[in-house]
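Lab notebook, bench 4. The sequencing result for the construct came back, and we need a structural model before the next group meeting so we can plan mutations. Quick request posted to the team channel:

Model the 3D structure of this chain.
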Amino acid sequence: MKDTIRTLHPEKKQGVNISREKYEIIRQAILSTLRSQKEMTFMKLSHAVEKEVNGNFEGSVMWYVTTVKLDLEARGEIKRVRHSRPQLVKLV
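Done. Here's the predicted structure in token form:
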């Protein structure tokens, strides 16, 4: 059986079980991108992560970015900038 992680949701909704390996790949890409950019829109972050993992990731990168981003928010590692449109995210 593959090693999985149960994600969290910032609004206490039910998380999902995903591969720990895929979670870590996306998590590292999100955090490294935000370290270099400080703050960026969710769409720009998603595209940057997609470029970073290009060719080395099986599955929908966008879905994993959304899922892992919500988990990182729930864990207090990143946060949404309040009242931003489009949504901005940054490291805590």
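The mean pLDDT is 94.
Will bring this to the meeting.
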